[in-house]
Design brief:
about 425 residues; mainly alpha; 16 helices; about 70% helix; globular
């Protein structure tokens, strides 16, 4: 079978997941504090997580085209389908941007004009950290991603009905657009990460944070694609995929889990060693007040895939690879929870008058670093049932978009000039 049919049963599962997510968001909003910080941080957390996966799928397609990669061609439609979520995810983040203008939330300390005026650090960054820049960069850069990846996908689909001679021309045109898309994502995605995530902790900075986030996104999308491929093959699709394709996807999961760990350790070790107040504050907050999640994050996202997938045969065992992909996917979602929630909680405390944000000298940084979460705050100190339900809803929405896109075109691009190389792939 080369045409995917989204069954009514599977569609119902996705819709039920979406319903659970909407219900959890509704309950969160109604039971939240006056600022609705838990509701908006859940929106930001999941919107950024799933949108980033679509960005990294686009990046992979562009990189593979420019590298003349052929091994993945037999199932490249799955990568292309994941990118279909981009406009939806960017739309959700744009809603958060509108919330900046209307003061619907206090996710970012720099949206408080009084706080910016009283804080020399925020004032110095105000040319970049402001509502206009947040919205403009999201729309312009995100729009560029959507436009460029859609050009590549349209040429990819055109190969299915083109003659043999035309396919090489179409493939060459895909590389032309990929050569534009690759540096565009490479240079601009880091700016979006600064805006969307790093600016939550506006006093903090790290030269490695954007690369760390990109690695986390990529590992997440690799996990999702592994699970999607195994699901499709178990239901009669992609019978032309062999153990070598699955093996290479397992190698990607293994390799980039190690790369993510390298970035995690390098960022943590260098900031700890330098002991600069405005840098160490980020890790001190998480180390002191979120120790279980902090250490579980590195233990699961590194130790599990490293130990299990180090052997060649485990990368080809469906059960083992599926287990690792599911657990790592969930814990990279937890990784984003740790990136976002502590800073949002602190901003909410300040907005509610629980802390003094007007300090103007360096001692502010040390005082801020010494603050602790005095009690367990559900939805912030740890992911509660409402957070898990919201993630389930976003996952259902993501899957519905991806699987709908899968059904629009042939799963295997029959006229791609690199198809035979992919079908005979061997490692």
């Amino acid at each position: 079978m080369n045409i995917f049919n989204l069954s009514s049963g599977l569609r119902t599962v996705f819709l039920v997941m979406i319903g659970i997510g909407v219900l959890c968001l509704g309950i969160t909003f109604m039971t939240d504090d006056a600022l609705h910080s838990r509701f908006w941080s859940n929106m930001l957390h999941n919107s950024v997580f799933f949108t980033g996966m679509a960005i990294m799928a686009s990046f992979f397609i562009a990189a593979a085209l420019l590298a003349y990669g052929g091994w993945y061609v037999a199932f490249k439609r799955v990568f292309e389908a994941v990118t279909a979520f981009l406009p939806y995810g960017l739309g959700l983040i744009a809603i958060i941007g509108i919330g900046n203008y209307l003061h619907l939330h206090h996710l970012y300390h720099w949206t408080d004009a009084k706080a910016v005026a009283e804080d020399p650090i925020l004032l110095g960054k105000s040319g970049f950290l402001n509502s206009n820049m947040f919205m403009i960069l999201t729309v312009v850069f995100g729009g560029a991603y959507v436009f460029l990846i859609n050009k590549i996908k349209s040429l990819s689909v055109a190969e299915d009905s083109a003659g043999f001679d035309s396919t090489f021309s179409l493939n060459s045109k895909q590389r032309y657009w990929a050569a534009i898309l690759l540096p565009v994502i490479g240079f601009t995605s880091v700016i979006l990460i600064w805006q969307w995530i790093m600016s939550i902790d506006a006093h903090w900075y790290s030269t490695m944070f954007a690369w760390y986030t990109l690695a986390s996104w990529f590992v997440s999308v690799v996990c999702f694609i592994i699970l999607t491929l195994l699901y499709l093959r178990s239901n009669g699709y992609y019978q032309n995929l062999n153990q070598h394709h699955i093996h290479d996807m397992g190698k990607l999961l293994f390799a980039f889990s190690v790369f993510w760990t390298y970035l995690w350790f390098s960022q943590f070790m260098l900031i700890w060693y330098a002991n600069v107040g405005e840098e160490t504050i980020y890790f001190k907050e998480r180390y002191d007040n979120y120790p279980v999640l902090f250490f579980a994050n590195i233990a699961v996202n590194f130790v599990l895939p490293f130990i299990v997938l180090l052997r060649n045969d485990t990368k080809r065992k469906v059960g083992t690879l599926s287990f690792v992909a599911i657990v790592v996917f969930i814990f990279h979602w937890v990784d984003f929870f740790l990136m976002i929630k502590p800073g949002v909680l602190h901003t909410a405390h300040e907005a509610l008058g629980h802390a003094d944000h007007g300090a103007a000298d360096a001692s502010h940084d040390h005082a801020h670093a010494a603050e602790h979460v005095s009690s367990i705050v559900s939805g912030f100190t740890f992911p509660g049932l409402l957070e898990l339900g919201t993630m389930l809803g976003f996952l259902g929405f993501f899957c519905l978009i991806v699987f709908n896109a899968l059904g629009k075109h042939a799963l295997t691009p029959k006229n791609d000039p690199y198809l035979e190389e992919s079908l005979h792939h061997h490692v």
